[in-house]
């Protein structure tokens, strides 16, 4: 099969990166809640466990409390 | 955008946890870009969270001296997390990005007019050209131009020298501009 000649492939690939990054920023970026969970897990912000019922604790804590 | 490597360097000296939070926030876009096409879009946030935590826990042990080395190190962690994700589901790891999945994201961007027509056209052509290459070439070019990794880091990931990586990338590009 003969490939179509493509001008400046590097430029086009960089554009692909640009478009994908834009999509990430619009719909897939880290949410405040996710960032809050991570900050809590690495010890930047404390979580008052007594204030939270087990079911209300961030997913990350339910999964990882024992690992950290 | 702040220079993430300066932040990493500062964190290694100070151990400032708040700065660590900022670093994770800054690199989350790059980690997400790595994951797109390697795992289903809906599972990206979960896996990304695992990766960011792993990075946070290991960052004090990172010894690199450049931005490229830092991202390369992050992508090694991301690759392991992706493999783990597939293993848990008894699936073969997706070692190369799923180009159809990336094309779907580009098309979504076109529908929502989030990027210019020219950018969308170029992005479509980029996927077309990746599809026309053998998987190794597509992977090399993706790492070099989409993930923007340096030659040293690409070489390290492929078990070759930076010079060999440069030559392979150049050969891959050559097959495109020669018209096959």
Topology:
The complex is a heterodimer of chains A (68) and B (180).
Chain A: H1 9-28, H2 32-41, H3 59-64
Chain B: H1 4-14, H2 17-35, H3 44-58, H4 67-88, H5 99-111, H6 117-132, H7 135-146, H8 151-158, H9 162-177
Helix pairs in contact in B: 1-2, 2-3, 2-4, 3-4, 4-8, 5-6, 6-7, 7-9, 8-9
Describe this structure in words.
The complex is a heterodimer of chains A (68) and B (180). Chain A has helices at 9-28, 32-41, 59-64. By secondary structure, chain A is mostly helical. Chain A is elongated. By secondary structure, chain B is mainly α. Chain B is 73% helix and 0% strand. Chain B has nine helices and no strands. In chain B, helix 4 runs parallel beside helix 8 (151-158) and helix 8 (151-158) crosses helix 9. The longest helix of chain B has 22 residues, at 67-88. Chain B is globular and about 50 Å long. The model of chain B has no long low-confidence stretch (mean pLDDT 90). The chains are: A mainly alpha (68), B mainly alpha (180).
The share of residues in helices of chain B is over 70%
Q: How would you sum up the global shape of chain B?
A: globular
What's the total count of β strands of chain A? 0
Q: What oligomeric state best describes the polypeptide chains here? A: heterodimer
N-to-C CA distance of chain B: 39 Å
Low-confidence stretches of chain A: none
Number of domains of chain B: 2
For the record, the CATH architecture of the largest domain in chain B stands as Orthogonal Bundle
How large is the share of residues in beta strands of chain B? Answer: under 5%
C-alpha Rg of chain A, in Å? 21 Å
Major sheet characteristics of chain B: none
Greatest interface and its participating residue counts? A-B, 40 and 53 residues
CATH top-level class of the largest domain in chain B: Mainly Alpha
Structural class of chain A: mainly alpha
What is the CATH superfamily of the largest domain in chain B?
A: RNA polymerase sigma factor, region 2, helix turn helix motif
CATH-defined topology of the largest domain in chain B: Rna Polymerase Sigma Factor, Chain: A
Reported for the largest beta sheet of chain A, the result is: none
- Poorly predicted parts of chain B: none
Order of helices and strands of chain A: HHH
Number of helices of chain A: 3
